[in-house]
Write a structure and sequence with these properties.
By secondary structure, the protein is of the alpha+beta class. The protein is built from 3 helices and 11 strands; from the N terminus they run αββββββαββββαβ. The termini are far apart.
């Protein structure tokens, strides 16, 4: 829980800094995430680019966040950072060739490791991302303060690892407001 709160605090600080500096605006159209992942943005976002991922938000990271990770590498924590080792053999570490249900469980476990509670996944289904087989599913979860969130996930494997997109927002207003547009955006993920 502390880690999710910490991630949200860092994201909020980055967002405020980006907004104060004019912030990089994502406009509707095809956007590149890293060198080879693309997505068609269906609406305007504020983008915070990290070393290996991007965080997009409309109203602020605690109200809606779209995390775009072009490549989770073999034996790496699903949301980047930690690596699997002999001292840390267990955890939400990605391995090439995982089944769709294993990838779903990996992402759910990753959310729990970052501090989300009461994480429940639903509607696991296959998805096609420009000829690459992948998966989509939804989640419900709470943060440390008890705020209820809903989330949607899209993921597929490619030559360099796992491409992952995770969108979450409070269940009461923000998620239903943008659910259809973000869902359509996730269907446009492509590896070039």
């Amino acid at each position: 829980m502390k880690r999710l709160h910490g991630m949200m605090s860092i994201a909020l600080a980055l967002l405020l800094a980006a907004c104060a500096a004019g912030g990089p605006l994502v406009t509707p159209g095809t956007q590149r995430i890293g060198s080879e992942l693309t997505i068609d943005a269906g609406m305007e976002w504020t983008r915070m680019a990290g070393y290996r991922e991007q965080l997009w938000t409309i109203d602020g990271p605690q109200l809606n966040s779209l995390h775009l990770i072009p490549g989770v590498r073999e034996r790496e924590f699903v949301f980047l950072g930690d690596r699997q080792s002999k001292r840390r053999p267990d955890g939400a570490f990605y391995h090439r060739g995982m089944r769709p249900d294993e990838l779903r469980d990996l992402i759910v476990d990753g959310m729990r490791a970052t501090g989300a509670v009461n994480v429940v996944a639903s509607n696991l289904r296959p998805a096609d991302f420009g000829g690459r087989e992948g998966l989509r599913f939804e989640m419900a979860m709470d943060n440390a303060s008890g705020l209820k969130y809903r989330a949607m996930v899209a993921a597929f494997e490619h030559e360099k690892g796992l491409a992952l997109a995770l969108y979450y927002a409070p269940a009461e207003y923000y998620y239903p407001r943008d659910e259809a547009k973000v869902g359509a955006m996730l269907d446009t993920l492509r590896w070039k």
